[in-house]
Design brief:
About 45% of the residues lie in helices and about 15% in strands. With about 675 residues, the chain is of the alpha/beta class. The strands form four sheets. Strands 8-9-12-13-14-15-16-17 form an eight-stranded parallel beta barrel, surrounded by four helices. Strands 1, 2, 3, 4, 5, 6 and 7 form a seven-stranded mixed beta sheet that branches. Helix 4 links the parallel strand 8 and strand 9. The longest helix is centred in the first third of the chain and has 26 residues. The radius of gyration is 28 Å and the shape is globular. The termini are far apart. About 0% of the residues have low confidence.
Length: about 675
Amino acid sequence: MKKLVLVLILCSVYSGHLVSQNILAETYNLMPWPKDIKVNPAKFIITSDVTISISPDNNGRVRNAAINFLRRLSNRTGVFLDKGFPLTNKVGSIHIAFDTVSKLSIENDESYSLIVHDTSISIKAKTDVGAIRGLETLLQLTKNNETNYFFPGVSINDAPRFVWRGLMIDVARHFQPIDVLKRNLDAMASVKMNVFHWHLTDDQGFRFESKVYPKLHELASDGLYYTQEQIKDLVAYADNLGIRVIPEFDVPGHASAILTAYPELGSKDGYDYTIERNSGVFDPTLDVTKDITYEFLENLFSEIAPLFPDDYFHIGGDENEGKHWDENKKIKKFKRKNKLKTNHDLQTYFNIKLEKILSKLGKKLMGWDEIMTPNMPTTAVIHSWRGENEGLEKGGSLISAAKKGYQTVLSNGYYIDRMLPVEHHYTVDPIGDAQLTKAEQSRILGGEATMWSELVTPLTIDSRIWPRTAAIAERFWSPKNINNVDDMKKRLKNVSFQLEELGITHIKNRDVILRGMTNNQDITSLITLSKICEPLKVYKRNKDGTEYKTFSPFNLFADACVVDAEDASDFNHIVNNFIKDSNETNAIQVLSYLKIWAKNHDDFLKLTKNPKIKPLQNLSKTLSEVSLILSETIQNKNISTENLSEIKNHIEILNNPFVDVEVVIVDALKELTGYCEATYLSN
């Protein structure tokens, strides 16, 4: 009986904690949500005499973060601060104390505590990285009323759930300049992400300046590559933000660019190796039976490794179908001689040799989950990307890797280039309901969002990464029970516009693209359409990887549209409310959208047409016509069989893709039509 009472008490405390957290989440737009937060009655008014002090005095990460904090706070509030830099030999109204300076690794302690009083704020941490995480939380706490900006009274104790909270950016398919990467590093730091995975090579380009093998960047980059000084600068910039940088040099497959420069390393003699312009999986593969291949990679990795201080080095290792291996008689003979039955065995042979090379350089080998074969040493790190979509069992390779003794990182479920809604990613948990021992659980380091760049350029990449990646960052940082999708979306909306402070272009570049499409005409009608359309999902936009090339235009209507189209999300919600209760308030909300769309085609017709705009005409016209009929139906509470048939025909048209986008209010229109048919149809 005593045990039962204790269980009931614990359940009550736990559920009470969740309730209080949910109530607080309605008040504070924090992301990621902290481990523990309590309110107090204090209110710290932000005035011109706000100051920061640091103990110990620090010229490194914390000082830089404090200066950046003061600039962002001043810009956000409009307050003219008297002191724009941390105080020395004085205690400021915001005081930061930490114990040690971190050398970035998976062992870093990023925990912190934050207490807001009426006249003082305290941030305490064991490390400088923990301190700068606390500063980001404090900035997110900024609130205002009519007369003041202020920090509300809170006590926070916070620490991350996972040690690896990453974003992978592919700069091979489409090159991303340093300033694009830096603004994304700033955004990552603002939501406490700590790993930048830099995918530097692929079939479409080699993006690293090699002084040892200069033909790599001279012949295989189209002149778009990073100098070694730029790489040093970016790594230092990331380090200053508490972000580790992991390079990826993808071998033995995805090697078209490498072999364009050094064809003698290839598996097919006489093959015309060229930089690929399309997307997909291609045949060119390093010949892993040649000694010169290992000499090349050891020399190259020896040049690369010192530029990246992190312990981990990603070798790719994915999607090698081995076609050129199968066509090479010497490779077949080598396999027989070394008792390598399959191409997987041959690639494992290659990976083991690479691991020894990297080990000599003080690096741990990391690769996509294809490298997890029976003979692969458990010192390798498995990057899990395949799941049910790729023919694997539920849970993919992550749990299997952890149980086999590998450290592992999850990306399956976080492929943001697939253009799936934010709730899809947010509801993927790295561990889920898997039953693991403590040791197995510790091997799951965390996860990475992956931004493959076949369909993105510097103009659009931010809108494909953000704001969804902020929600993924919360999944990696916050306790598992922080999982309310509606609450997350409310907070994400606020975080999204705050990302613009850091130079992220995910909001403003929509209008840049639309103005370009129209030659600077009034884009109001196109904005209206973009708010209910989303790019085609899961690579349907670029079927078979051949519709778009690396030099194709990526400033079209589909590039202006984003996932989680804002009006569509709202309309879908209010239609659901209206069907549940068709009261006047809910009817007005539905009609407000229908009336906008009914009139929108009139504005569209005013545009001087061109080949970019004209394909949208049928979408605009059909949307207006169906919206007008539905609007009149709801207002008159009557619909004829002819109008009902017309509505259904219009919806069928809208259900098809237009210029690489899908209309994401179609389901709501169908539900609304069904309601009208059941409620208003004339006899």
